[in-house]
């Protein structure tokens, strides 16, 4: 394994976050905003899949590491798959997190239809210790904007990530996304003067994330 600084900043690391996070310094991150696999065997219309979306082996170790890396009295937000809400909640609670809020991202279209039209994504606000209430709390229902998923099969819109970072990460703080995909969280962090640390398992997505943050920082 290549040596790693214990407090890397403004970089995207390539590899399995359950192996990389244990090498980072404890209590070194101000806010976590992440969008892990939903555990739903996702496949888009063109056949693209998400790595580790077919197993939960990573969920407990990743949640425990997220808790360890977060500073005391700080917050994390994790998207999750409603199909496996029980597994996500159990892993977060076992890691030490307290459920502090729930966010719904309302879509103006149905991303798929079965018994219902699927018109929302969802995330939990997770607390480590007793974080301060933000000076200007935001609503827990935010409007979703379709990204076109050109950079990643499950690309998140910057328009929903930016208010979360502005509200929950202190100015100049470090935002961690251990499942960073195309790097949308990292770009949102730089746009608001926060530092970032991304981790991505798949080489092609890691390359995308690296070029997205480089492009944004050059702009
Ligand atoms: C839901 S996607 C994130 C999409 C991202 N929010 C975006 O806007 O592009 C989850 C990502 O986690 C990555 N992943 C899965 N298992 C991982 C692991 N153990 N360590 C790091 N990344 C992982 C997948 O390759 C995928 O890109």
UniProtKB/TrEMBL annotation:
Report the GO terms under cellular component. cytoplasm
Output the superkingdom of the source species.
Answer: Bacteria
Instruction: Specify the enzyme's EC class, one word.
Output: transferase
Location of the DNA methylase N-4/N-6 domain: 29-208
Record keywords, A-Z: Methyltransferase, Transferase
Q: What is its EC number?
A: 2.1.1.-
Q: What name has this protein been given in UniProt? A: Methyltransferase
Q: Which organism is it from?
A: Prosthecodimorpha staleyi
